[in-house]
Amino acid sequence: MVGIAREVFGDALPVAERYAAFLADAGVERGLIGPREVDRLWERHLINCAVVSEAVPEGAHVVDIGSGAGLPGVVLAIVRPDLRITLLEPLLRRTTFLSECVEMLDLGNVEVRRGRAEDVADDYAVDVATARAVAPLERLATWALPLLRPGGELLALKGERAAVELDEAQPVLKRFGVATTELLQVGRGRVDPPTTLVRVVAGRGGVVERQQRAPRRAKRSRKRSS
């Protein structure tokens, strides 16, 4: 995987290596990464997430929903310094980890925000929302689509059930007035199997646009566990 990692990350490989070491150490110690994942961090996690950059437009503002250990958000920030990344995560212990990670790696294009997507939707109108292993698409769409500008994209990393989830989510996607949906495979020749993405493009009308034009709602205070 060394040659592939060098090809994918280029000059940013040393930063990716520091991130991998942090995941293997503090990430495991704090329960963000399973011990069995350490031996396959590059193949299963870092490179798998890095190739998502093939589908992200240049200069985009990306919100990574339920960022957890920073997959794919931190990886995208490393491999694509042209992107502006918001790592959105509701749990304190995870946002603490992410903040330490961003500082250690000196990622000036990243902001860490503690919160749930449904609570901060009025604050964002971004180009791209990403998510990996967060929720089924029909639920994820209800969180992600209100964060997007009209024409913005949800890029959801999915496995072998991607087509099934996309089919099951059709009623929700129709209600939100999405423009288009498709299945993409990125990273061919670099990861096996290629990374599967569900791309959902927000429409220029319907629920999403009305929510973005609506006055800001008063935020409800919630206690969140660590």
Automatic annotation (TrEMBL):
Question: Which Gene3D superfamilies does this UniProt record tie to the protein?
Answer: Vaccinia Virus protein VP39 (3.40.50.150)
| Record-listed S-adenosyl-L-methionine binding positions | G66, L71, A117, E118, R132
Species: Actinomadura algeriensis
Q: Which UniProt keywords apply?
A: Cytoplasm, Methyltransferase, rRNA processing, S-adenosyl-L-methionine, Transferase
Q: What does this protein do?
A: Specifically methylates the N7 position of a guanine in 16S rRNA.
**MF terms in GO:** methyltransferase activity
Instruction: Tell me where in or outside the cell this protein is found.
Output: Cytoplasm
Give a GO biological-process term: methylation
Question: Could you tell me what this protein is called?
Answer: Ribosomal RNA small subunit methyltransferase G
Q: Which HAMAP family match?
A: 16SrRNA_methyltr_G
Task: Indicate the family of this protein.
Answer: Belongs to the methyltransferase superfamily. RNA methyltransferase RsmG family.
Which EC numbers does the record give? 2.1.1.-
Organism's domain of life?
Bacteria
